[in-house]
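Colleagues,

Please find the record for the two-part complex below.
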Amino acid sequence: SQTIHQWPATLVQPVGSPLSLECTVEGTSNPNLYWYRQAAGRGLQLLFYSVGIGQISSEVPQNLSASRPQDRQFILSSKKLLLSDSGFYLCAWGLGQYTGELFFGEGSRLTVL
Amino acid sequence: EDQVTQSPEALRLQEGESSSLNCSYTVSGLRGLFWYRQDPGKGPEFLFTLYSAGEEKEKERLKATLTKKESFLHITAPKPEDSATYLCAVRVTGGGNKLTFGTGTQLKVEL
């Protein structure tokens, strides 16, 4: 069966510090991978998606970046965090380029102080 | 701009009290509507996919329906374990991989 792992689950970071969130998927090959952010009172916002190794599409211009160094690994990074980066970050995977059936990780709660 | 609006924002039901959640959408061209369930502090869990008006899907106490302007998630005889936030999302023509999510309905079912 397929599983998705996301870490860390919770982190508190000072403004201006770097960020790295990691996500790995097991039990499937060549998945589409997604990073979403969920802010209080707002819907899930798509940040990045990837259809293959090294292929990253950005949906929202910001100080975040994503990388996919391996088929089932997706990393969200920032060189300098802003207060507005606080939120609940969710990694997800799906099969097929235009599927709406996504499988989400447990999420990473980021607080920037 | 594509928009997804869910109502009500919050709903409190007694166990066994059936009700419906609404997801209305204004999009250029619908390529699919999706329902998810999200428990507090967790990632969303996929429930249903609907593609065309008149389509219905069922799972246990949940039934999702779709019209040309909105979707309903009907909950029949809910139990406390149905308490969660229910999200709907749409995929639109020309939107590629992007899903546009609503802000959700927070459902609480009490004994």
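The interface with chain B takes residues 6, 32, 34, 41-46, 49, 51, 57, 59, 90, 92, 97-98, 100-107, 109 of chain A (CB under 8 Å).

Comments are welcome before we finalize the supplementary table.
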